[in-house]
Design goal:
alpha+beta; Jelly Rolls; 2 domains; four-stranded antiparallel sheet; 8 strands
């Protein structure tokens, strides 16, 4: 590519200006001046250098002429081969009693006992009469009182299902069947209520008693009782 003569002349002027400045400061460092004739000689020499030939088009054509091998698409053959694979049958196509293993043949259920959801007391099933005894008393300090009582009539059985009580604080709640204590709980001022779900039977002639003892040093009011289902003996 030809050089710009104007730019070379400008370069010469800059170099000569630099040399003059150096001569003023330190003449010993200047070896010689670059004259215009030398610049012209350099420019002519540079212009005679061979210019690189632009062969971009030939390179592009050569690249386009490269033939890449075509990769065969065998997807269809692979799918066909996989579709012919057969695995051993583990499960039958349909389930019935006939093709179950012997240990898996459904058996009729004969031991189911149904209860109503939410019937913790047991009062809703089995018939009979509902018995509920309740009382409320002001009990003096340190005293025990019978809050509720029931005597089972002849020919009957009382299934005692639950007991409950309430008071301000520090009471002992007790349930007796025929003089034997079968349940006890204690309340406090942080939890004033007590309750229990029971499975006790009282036979004909037996007495069921619900007692409360006041453990405080002052009279307190208490309430409570018990309930159950009475059936024929």
């Amino acid at each position: 590519m030809p050089l710009d003569r104007v730019k070379l002349l400008k370069l010469r002027e800059n170099i000569n200006a630099y040399i003059r400045k150096m001569e003023e400061q330190d003449p010993a460092t200047v070896v010689g001046k670059i004259t215009g004739a030398k610049i012209d000689e350099l420019a002519r020499a540079i212009q005679t250098l061979p210019v690189a030939e632009d062969r971009t088009d030939e390179v592009v054509d050569a690249i386009r002429g490269i033939k890449m091998p075509v990769i065969k698409d065998n997807t269809g053959e692979i799918v066909k081969a996989i579709s012919t694979i057969r695995f051993p049958q583990v499960f039958p196509d349909h389930i019935s009693v006939d093709n179950f293993p012997p240990q898996k043949i459904p058996q009729p259920v004969t031991n189911v006992k149904a209860t109503l959801v939410g019937d913790e007391t047991g009062l809703l099933g089995g018939g009979g009469d509902i018995i509920h005894e309740f009382g409320q008393q002001n009990i003096a300090a340190g005293n025990t009182m019978v809050m509720a009582t029931y005597t089972v009539p002849a020919g009957k059985i009382l299934n005692v299902s639950g007991v409950y009580g309430e008071g301000i604080d520090d009471g002992i709640f007790m349930l007796y069947i025929d003089g034997i204590k079968v349940w006890q709980a204690r309340n406090a001022w942080t939890d004033r209520n007590v309750q229990g779900y029971l499975l006790y039977d009282a036979s004909a002639g037996q007495v069921v008693e619900f007692k409360i003892k006041n453990n405080k040093a002052a009279t307190r009011a208490y309430t409570g009782g018990f309930y159950g289902r009475q059936i024929d003996a």
